[in-house]
């Protein structure tokens, strides 16, 4: 095959890779939104929908892996391309994890009985969820618009989420100690909060990968952590 | 540079990559062992040691990424090499996650007050930890000895760990409901159990990656899950 065709094929593959990752990002976002809605509205149908849709994300993660392998076989990519390719694999993994955590939130929402769940606890988890949703949206926007500064801004925001998360855990412990009937629900909420906090970590991790992809700079310092 | 030298350099890099991953594996194993010891012996010094050693694992994860980028720049690798390279990145990520979960177990062990911790609950977490330790050891042995059958065996064993984990969660909930003073410790133990269970998931995930690396076969079916 003439060299020119190879280059064109490589560029086509690059576009396809971007498209797959952006489809994964969209799915991860909507999975999180639906999981939070399922919790808020005690809607088991929505929860089931989230649990079913997770397969598609796993499929796309495997697709990224195979696309990358194909691209590497097509030509010997240069430094920039290589960073792009290597970070693609890692971003896909992070998005797959995010969708998986959303699925877990949805699954746990099925265990929440409104009668034995303190409603401020429920709102607390929802609030944390919205913070993390905004973070995830920002990092995906940064990815789509190749906006380095936006990616950098995401990186520093994780600390707020940490603080909200730790405050919520303390609140949940208090409910459990005050009323043993809430223990089961609050335990579920605590795990959900942890899952949501982990989604925030992965979003921040994607921001780090984007910085590495675009600048070659590696983020080795510990990122800002919450104070609590 | 003559072609022969390129090949030799590639093979050298391949060896270096294997060495880095096997160092990561050894560290992940020892981090988990020390975290469990810290919990068992209420030893805060050991816990601190685990928390400090985590940096080294993160460093090695970045080293794998850079080695892979260097190798891809050296030559256009063939299908087998590519699978090896792509799975190396993912295995390194999984080991980094495992070490991170071990660090989290160590950190939480500092919060465990022997007086308000039901000792069977503590032994339960330790038992789960040993099961997962054995699983991790097996998958690392499979990696070192390139033993496909051993990797395949790891893949099916995760279900037992799921069962033990879910039994333990039920047990912890019972203690919390019976005696509110145990809530704080049991919550920590529940998160530790979750972390340990996740280590098992990642070990299984490494087994899947090894199967893909050596055979090209992708494990798309759901792996066996516990019944509880």
From TrEMBL, chains A, B:
It is found in: Cytoplasm. GO terms for biological process: intracellular phosphate ion homeostasis; negative regulation of phosphate metabolic process; phosphate ion transport. Its main location: cytoplasm. GO terms for cellular component: cytoplasm. Keywords: Cytoplasm, Phosphate transport, Transport. Pfam families: PhoU. Transmembrane segments: none annotated. The keyword GTP-binding does not apply. Residues 21-108, 126-209 form the PhoU domain. InterPro entries: PhoU, PhoU-like_sf, PhoU_dom. The keyword Transport applies. Belongs to the PhoU family. Homodimer. PANTHER family: PHOSPHATE-SPECIFIC TRANSPORT SYSTEM ACCESSORY PROTEIN PHOU (PTHR42930). Plays a role in the regulation of phosphate uptake. This is Phosphate-specific transport system accessory protein PhoU. It comes from Vineibacter terrae. The lineage of its organism: Bacteria, Pseudomonadati, Pseudomonadota, Alphaproteobacteria, Hyphomicrobiales.
């Amino acid at each position: 095959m003439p060299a020119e065709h190879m280059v064109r094929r490589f560029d086509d593959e690059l576009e396809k890779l971007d498209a797959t990752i952006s489809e994964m990002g969209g799915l991860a976002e909507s999975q999180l939104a639906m999981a939070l809605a399922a919790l808020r509205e005690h809607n088991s149908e929505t929860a089931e929908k989230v649990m079913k849709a997770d397969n598609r994300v796993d499929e796309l993660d495997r697709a990224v892996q195979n696309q990358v392998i194909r691209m590497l076989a097509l030509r010997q990519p240069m430094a920039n391309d290589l960073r792009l390719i290597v970070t693609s694999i890692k971003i896909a993994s992070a998005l797959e994890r995010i969708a998986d955590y959303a699925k877990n939130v949805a699954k746990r929402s099925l265990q929440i009985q409104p009668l034995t769940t303190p409603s401020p606890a429920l709102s607390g988890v929802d609030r944390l969820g919205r913070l993390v949703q905004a973070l995830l949206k920002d990092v995906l926007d940064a990815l789509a618009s190749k906006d380095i500064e936006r990616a950098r801004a995401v990186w520093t925001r994780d600390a707020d989420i940490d603080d909200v998360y730790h405050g919520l855990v303390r609140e949940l412990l208090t409910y459990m100690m005050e009323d043993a009937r809430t223990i089961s629900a609050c335990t579920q909420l605590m795990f959900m909060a942890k899952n949501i906090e982990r989604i925030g970590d992965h979003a921040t991790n994607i921001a780090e990968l984007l910085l590495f992809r675009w600048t070659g700079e590696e983020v080795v310092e510990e990122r800002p952590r919450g104070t609590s």
